[in-house]
Design goal:
Blueprint: E1 2-8, H1 13-16, H2 20-31, E2 36-42, H3 46-52, E3 59-60, E4 66-67, E5 72-75, E6 80-82, H4 85-95, H5 132-146, H6 150-153, H7 163-174, H8 186-199, H9 201-207, H10 219-234, H11 237-257
Parallel strand pairs: 1-2
Antiparallel strand pairs: 1-5, 3-4, 5-6
Length: 265
């Protein structure tokens, strides 16, 4: 059985997992109907676990230091160890072609988002991928959601036993020195929500009446679905319900349609 490494937040773990890239991979594993077990890793332990498995960091901060993150997938049948959500999707697609759905069907994914400012947290790189449409789409979707993650940080479901250490690690990743820097006033928060809704407009157009971009789900849908899972776990209830209804309810329909692939093993 494959082992999938996800970020442990507060208990119960299977109801509070909220990290976006592990969600992309979890949805992909279930979409491909691949049996697996989850190993939960507290945020402060991710670097140690990753280095012990011999998996190098897949991204770097702007200062050149390594960014150790999850998910990780290990497959004992091939001895594979993969430490990037996009690479995990490609691995599942190639290694298990006859199981579950097609993660990478040919399709045009014309969506770009330019934030106009530098994003501090390193995003997935667009390498010479076999699936360039999907790689670019992944990077642009990551950018639009990352620019508005300040809305979600306050709702991160930290485990009380490791909360202080986890927050320190979170601050280090964000390049900040105090948790108070994540605080947003009422007026500023509403402005960011309005910006978020507007920024998602072009993305929503891809889905039409949905729930998926095309008739069948693909990894492109799971990329957006991973972010929606994070939003569902971390936004205040009223803001989550608002997001579900933006642009004719397209994101609510997508989130609900992917529920069948959201099981935690």
């Amino acid at each position: 059985m494959l082992t999938f490494y996800d970020v442990a937040m507060g208990p119960p773990l299977h109801q509070r997992n909220s990290a976006v890239n592990p969600w992309k991979s979890r949805l992909a594993l279930n979409f491909k109907n691949i049996p697996h077990q989850t190993t939960w890793v507290p945020l402060p332990n991710i670097t140690k676990v990753r280095t012990n498995l011999g998996i190098p960091a897949c991204r770097k901060f702007a200062d050149g230091t390594d960014f150790y993150t999850l998910p990780i997938l290990t497959d004992p049948t091939t001895s594979a160890k993969i430490g990037d959500s996009f690479d995990i999707a490609i691995y599942l697609h190639k290694q298990y072609p006859n199981s579950g759905g097609n993660l990478f069907p040919p399709q045009t994914l014309e969506y770009t988002y330019n934030p106009g400012v530098d994003i501090l947290v390193p995003l997935s790189e667009i390498n010479q991928s076999e699936y360039p449409q999907y790689a670019r789409f992944n990077a642009n979707v990551d950018a639009v959601f990352t620019m508005h993650t300040m809305l979600m940080v306050g709702g991160m479901p930290f485990d009380p036993e490791t909360e202080e250490e986890a927050k320190k690690e979170f601050l280090r990743r964000a390049g900040l020195s105090s948790w108070d820097q994540f605080a947003i006033g009422v007026e500023a928060r509403q402005q960011m929500l309005d910006s978020f809704e507007k920024a998602l407009g072009d993305l929503a157009k891809l889905f039409g009446d949905g729930p998926f971009i095309t008739e069948e789900a693909s990894y492109a849908d799971l990329i957006v679905g991973g972010w929606l899972r994070m939003a569902n776990r971390t936004l205040p209830e009223g803001e989550w319900e608002a997001l579900r209804g933006w642009h004719g309810g397209v994101f609510g329909r997508l989130h609900d349609a992917l529920e069948v692939y959201a099981g935690v093993n």
